[in-house]
Each structure stands twice: as C-alpha cells, then as structure tokens.
Queue: 2 jobs
Job 1
Amino acid sequence: MNGRHETVMLLAVYRSLNPAEQQAIHSHVASCRACALRRAAYTEVDRQLASLSAPELPASLSKPLAAVLAARAAPRGGAAVASRVGNPSEFRARSSRTRRQPGCAAAREQRSPVVFRRALLPIGVFVLLTLGVWLVIRAVRPTQIQLAETPSVTPTATPLALATAPGLALASPQRDIVLTAYWAADGEPAPRPLSRVHLVASSAPAIAVALTPAVLRQPGLLGSGLHAPPR
Amino acid sequence: MCAQSEANDVIGGLFCEYRSAIFAYIWRLVDNREWAEDLTQETFVRLFEARRRLPDVVNQRAWLYRIATNTTCNALRRRRRFAWLPWQAARAWLSGEGAAIDEIGQRSAVEAALAALPVAYRAPLLMHSHDDLTINEIAEALEISASAVKMRIYRAKEMFRRAYERENRQ
C-alpha cells in the first residue's frame, strides 16, 4: 500500500481490483479496524445500489430496434419516411449519405430557407410584441402606467419582460423602469437579484437589446421583473 | 454489404441486451421517466448512426455507455442553459420540491441519496455498483483515466453515505 488515502480509495473499488490487489487490501483490513469498517460501509453502498429495482421498460422501447428507429425518424422526415423504414438501416444509411455529401445542392437549397425562416420568427415576434405593448400603453395615459402595484418586483416570464422592456420604457418617458433578473445561486434558500438595469426612456431600447442575449445566456436564470420605482 | 448487415445485427443485439439497463441508467441520471425514454431512443439512434465504427470498438458495452452518458450529459447541459421556470415552480424547485420528485412520488432513501449526487459522480457510481462495469469500462465510457474513475467512485460513495444518513435522519 502506498498510503492511507490510496488504501481507502482502493477499498471503494475493492471488487474491481485484481486478485493481487485484493489480497493486499485483505491483509491490510485484517489488521486495521478503521479500514474494515470502511470496507463494510462501501460494501453496503454496493448492496444498496445493486438492489435498486429496474424501472418498467416503456412501451416504445419494448419494440424491436427497427420500430424505435422508425419512430424517431418519423418526426424528422414525416410519415412518408416512416413508412419507408421497413428497413430502417437502409433509411438511416441513405439519410446520412444525403447529409454528408458535400455537393448535395438539393439538400442545401432545402435547408437554407428553413434556417432563414427560423431566424426571422423570433425577430418578428420581438417586433410585434414590442409594438403591441407600446400601442396598448400609449392608448392608456402614460403617466398612469402602473407596472407593478408596489416597488417590489412582480416577476414575469423573462423573455417576455426583456422583449417588452423597450416598448414600456418608450411609452413611459416620465418614469424609469427597473429590469431585474434573478438567478439562483447554489445552496441559497431564495433567488437573489444579481442584475438591475435602469431603463431610461431615451436609452432603454439600446440597453434592452444589448442586454437580452447576455441575460439569456446566464445559467440558472429563474425569472425577471419590471417595475417603476417611486419618485 | 455483408459487413453492414453484420453491424446491424450487432446493434440489434446490443439493443435487446442493454435497453433496460441503459433506460434505468439514464433515468437515474435525469430523474424523469419521459425524458429518459427519449434519451434512450436517442442513444440507440446514435449508436446505429455510428455503426461503421463498430469494427474498431474493443468493448461494445463501454461504447454504449459512453454514447448514453454523452447524450444524457449534453441534454442536461442544454436544459440548464434554457430552462425557464414559472415563478412559483422556481420557488418549489429551490425548496427541493421539484416536479421530478412529484412525478415518482415517495422515493426510497437510496434513490433520494443517489439523486443528491452530482451527475459526474452519480454516473460512475451507477456503472460500478449497479451495472457491474469494470474500472476500465467506466474509464472508457467516461473518457477519463482508470485512476480518475477510482477517485470518483470513492468520492461518490462517501457522498452517497452522507446523503443516505441525511435522508434517514429526516
């Protein structure tokens, strides 16, 4: 044995050791009560985990592999593809060939408008949402905008709050708007605000637009709130 | 053509032999039945797509667990990045009453203690103590050295013991 730490580590993987290592551990454990107790504890862990019952297999996995592959192919390629997967291997081989061929112009032509449409959709939603909120709030008198009942933050869905922030800020030039994003830190009982950004009417759209990707990238973001602080 | 059909047979055999084990393994990593079902399917689709590499694979079981682990870890990473929780759900989540726990109801202390472990430790512990993989197989599956596997299993067992004692006290 090279040292106590290594001995303890080997105790944890005792049953995977080769016979020579097992023999060395065995003779050590015979004379060391602490290691004997530890080995018993690790054996108990192995026993507990080995006794975990196997979950019931879902119906989708009880079928043969060909059916599973066909089921996975269906949403990607539609019903016609699924019906072709009488021989799924043939289908998968064919689809991977199509993907990998560099000169496959048809595949490229099909893909690019989809990518373009996918990029357009969030932009369109963002513009429409901002415009809609702006129009609604302009219709109400801007001086009476009450974004929250109290200075405390009313949490809203984060993407919505971020998307509507510029519109709200533009529509209420008399007031500041505070955008608060919440993150949960490990081990903390409650989420804490880690970022507060005052969106003043003139600079709000630029700030909000610049902020959105940065906020959305943060791991563990739980939500955000908008409120107008009292003057 | 013959080699391809042979590879298909091998993949089919791996599916029959290991689908239950892989489903249970993934379920215990993600703690959600539907998600585990989806990821298990994804694992075998990836295995099937990679079947041309089969002749180079020395240990097929380790290879399968490697694909399952990578598929699951990628999915967990994606969820951490994009999980938007409603406010009330977030509070419940913070107080440890997540939907996953509701879903499986009253779980045993062993399952609860296992769920308390980080995935990086839960994965080797499950492979070692539940699925009986050797140290070398786990090393291959996790793409780390054998000594790193031993260290992780040792730490995982220590964490598990502490978590299990906590569960029993509650």
Note: Strands of chain A lie at 154-156, 177-183, 192-199, 221-227.
Job 2
Amino acid sequence: MRIELTGRQPLLRRDIRACVADEGWLTLDAGRLSFASPLDLAAMVALAHNVPQGTRVGLVVPRDIRTASYLQRMDVLRRLPVGTEIDGRLPEEQRTDCSGTLLEVSPLLPSTVQELVNRVGRLTSEQLMTGVAGLAFRGAGELIDNATSHGHSQLGAFLCAQTYTGATSGRVGFEFAVCDTGIGVLAHLRGNPAYLRVPDSRTAIAWALQRGVSGTTEQRGNGLADLLQFTQEGGVGRLVIRSGHGVVSVAQRGHYRRDAYTAAATGITGTWAWLRVRFP
Amino acid sequence: MDTLLEFAVAQLHDGQFLATRSKGRAIREDLEDRIAHQQPDSVLIDFTGVEAMTISFADEFLGRFYAARAADAPAVLLLGLNDENATTISICMERRDLAAAAIIDDQHALLGAPGHLIDTYQRALTLGAFSALDLSSELNISPQNMNNRLKKLVAAGAIQRRRVVASHGGKEFVYTIPSHIQCERAL
C-alpha cells in the first residue's frame, strides 16, 4: 500500500489518499508534503508500526527542505520501525533545544506516560497564560488518558505537541495529537451493552463526544465532552477524531459550536485525535 | 489526641501534572493502603505542587475514594489546591453528588456541594460540636432535612459523628468538627 501525503496536513483531511501498490510494502510517500501538523507526524509513525507482519515500510522524504527538516526535528524518522527504507535526501540536522515549545513524536507506553504528561504540562504552563494553560493541559490530558485506557495495544500510541508563541500569527496556541493503535472507538463503545447496537465508527465517535457516554458501565465518560472547556476563556478550538472509517471534527468558539460527522473511504486501525487551541 | 495521616500527592507520586485514570487509581490505592495500615482519625490530602489535573484523574482518585467511604471512615481535608484544581475537583464531586472539605485561600470550602450544604457546613464550623436538633433550630429547617444534610457532610469526611447517651436516657448522635480542621482554623 502507498499512502500519498501531499500538500498541507494531509492526514487531517477526511480522505486519506491510499492506493493499492507496492505489494508487501507500506510506503509513506511524503515527497509532495508541504506542511505537517502534529497529527500528521504522530499518525505517520503509528501507521508505520501498525502493519501486518512481514510488511516492509518505506518513507519518501519531502522534497521541500523545510518540511523534511521538520520531520527530522520532530523525530519522525527516529520513531519509524527499525529497517524503514528512506528514499530521498535528508538535510543535515542542527538540533537546538526546543523542549519549551515542542514535544517530538514519542511513544506513549505505560512506562513513558507520566514523563510525557509532565512534558505536556510544562509545555502548556511555560508557554500559555495562567488559566488557559490549565485548560489546554486538561484537554491534552483527557486525550492521553483515552489513548492509554481505551486505546491500549501492544504497539502503544504516539503523541506529538507544539505550542505557538503568537509571534507570527498574533495568537498564542497549542496543538496536540495522539494516535493509538488500539481497538478503536466503535469496539470500545460496544463494550458497554447500552451501546452494543451502535452501527458504525462515525456514530460511535458522535456518541463518545456526548457527556456520560462510556464503553464501560461505570459512572464516567465525560472526558471528550470536557475537552473543549478552553473556550470558557475565550479560546478558539478544533478537535478532530478519526477512528475506523469515522471522522468527526468539532470547532468551537465561545458558545458557538460546529460539528461535522463524516465517513472516510479509507479506514484506520485505532484512534487518532488532534486538538488545536488558540487564545486571543 | 487524634491520629493524623498526611498524604502529599506531588511528593509521593511525581505529581506535578496528573492526567490519567491509571495514575489516579495508583494514588487512590496507595492512600487506601495507608489508611488501612495506620487507621488514622483524620486524613490531610495535600495537593501543594500539583499544577494541573484532568477531571478523569480527579474522578478516579477522589471521586471513587469519596464514593467508597464508610460512615466511620476518617475525616478528610484537602489542602494546597490552586484555583483550577479546586474547580476540577468541584466538577468531579458535583457529578457524583458528593462533596469534599477543603481549605482554599485560608478559607473553608466544600467542593462540589450545593449552596444549602455549604451554609450548613459553615454553621457547623462555628458550633464545633452539636446535635442535628441544635443545628436544625439554628438554620430553621426540619430535623429530617438536617439529618439528610449531615449525612452528606459525614460522607464528605467534613464532620464526624458519634453515638452518645442523651440527657433523657435515649441515644443520639453528636456531630463534631474533626480536630485537624480545628487546627487549620487556628492557623
């Protein structure tokens, strides 16, 4: 299979461009990639790890030198499976310490989860104002909790984050993504007999965003609904969740909220979540 | 003298930022183990150094902890909460129809509780020791209504209840503010 990663933020679009080619291979063709979000980065690594046994993995390096540098800086190449074939020229790496603004693609495992929670906490507290920092952390924290508790698998999950100082855009922001390789939202939700008849992933994600809906029979299931609380502080946010063939996008500004529920032609294994918040 | 268990979350559990239910479960189990081992009269849960927590974490740690409390369990007081963490815990408690006693900015607070329960708690703090009848007269509500409120305050670990022989020979409950709360008041 060949996945074409073209243009800007290709894995945030509804349809992933995948074609049956390169038998026995998964090729991530980023040759024409011009801009990658944290979700693109984490999802590329999750896709590369989540292949059938015996499948080889290849990466076509972006021709755009800045994008190639970004992939390298964010540890995409480092986190790809051992033996991944790299096609293209990599720029010479000049790594500076950006731990105050970046969280490179990192494997989310039981052994690394607290360290990563602390990294996300420091990113938000150092870059965002008091008040909104806590809200941004809580949003990312709920997604980390979902990935570790519902999205558990042997392969684990991958996360990535970045803060924006607002120097160019004028708006301080935070972007976070976590991509797990677990059972997905539909199968998880069906674990609760009350949701056994949920027909598809799109509907399952829509349900999961409702307050009090859980794949367990316990009194919980508010995590995703709580996630958009940053808008209390005047923030503007967008949440995208992809699982199976379902893709749900929620955009919120103050009390105004717009949800879009779609079904994608190409499904994924596990759940991908991306949260972006911007503050005035 | 009452025995006191002090449980400093950040120090004991690398807890500057707290996000996951699994972390909440681990901390709750540690606290429950310590309570079972030491059998204290009162517990102080100190959140000093905890910068932020998710509602899921708070629910797994405190929501479940309070929900499982027996009537004779030790009194509990939360300390060291910043504004955001106090809000997070309030949301979590409110969803479970529970309450938690806390000191916020040197003031007594009852997180997650409705207004009438907070009023009852504030009045109880001024009395120190009282019967349901005393407090129902003070607040001008029925004894039955007051019993319901006091039951919730006992469940919150905010006050303690003990059975005594009444002056007329029967048995009745006397409610007291736990000594560690009185100490915090003195501070």
Note: Chain B touches chain A through 22 residues (CB under 8 Å).
